[in-house]
Amino acid sequence: MSDRFEITLPIADYRPQHFLLAVTGKVATITLNRPERKNPLTFESYAELRDLFRALKYEKTVAAIVLTGAGGNFCSGGDVFEIIEPLLSRDTKGLLEFTEMTGDAVKAMRACPQPIIAAVDGICVGAGAILAMASDIRLGTEAAKVAFLFNRVGLAGCDMGACAILPRIIGQARASELLFTGRSMAGAEAERWGFFNRLVASDALLAEAETFAARLADGPTFANGITKKMLHMEWAMGVDEAIEQEAIAQALCMQTEDYRRAFNAFASKTKPEFQGN
Predict the structure, then answer these.
(1) Is residue 3 domain-resident?
(2) Total domain count for the chain?
(3) Which of 147, 146, 138, 129 is nearest to 199 (CA)?
(4) Are residues 145 and 25 in the same domain?
(5) Could you count the other beta carbons within 10 Å of the beta carbon of residue 243?
(6) What is the reported pTM?
(7) Most buried among 3, 7, 69, 123, using CB within 10 Å?
């Protein structure tokens, strides 16, 4: 199993081994690309995703990320024969190395400053549902089926941060139902419960996600990164502490050239052209 990928900057020059990567303008689109198996993950694709998101933290030309799957499905989770079966022969140390590595992929997604938009069609289960959950914004389709099915394979629902993150998206009781039963949500229910920000027609999904990402990428990207950081950090803060941290964060943003550009544009009745500094 490869546990490290040397990812060179700029990202536009990187050619992944286990998924597709396309950079258009300031938007990077990551496509899980094993459509014949509904885009399952392997040891190597987990590790390469982790290392790519770590590298994106330092990539200045990418301001937003789209994560999607090929062939009408998002991701069917860990590959049964390339992950689940080999794990049966590992000892506790080897199993912990795997679960910590998968958790590191989520940590890397949360730590990279760019907003991540998941474009979810078709099957989105197990670790695939986790990747969608760990994204900042989720666009879905009527055909989407989302399931945190760990319970159905004899595992706890507390995988890769699910017990921490999912309740904050859809609420404690709803998250409990999904994690205890492993049942699937269709697209309409996932939108109604707040897992999907909205539903889009399947044939328009990727274009809508990339348009949304481009709109975010044209915004004040330093400030957007601060927003993502504070949304993540404030989960563990009291209200008073959060207000103090936001005061510091906003004061930092007020020192940026983008803040000055916004004022000058308002004063001249033009649209600001943010540059991320």
Answers:
(1) no
(2) 2
(3) 138
(4) yes
(5) 11
(6) 0.93
(7) 69
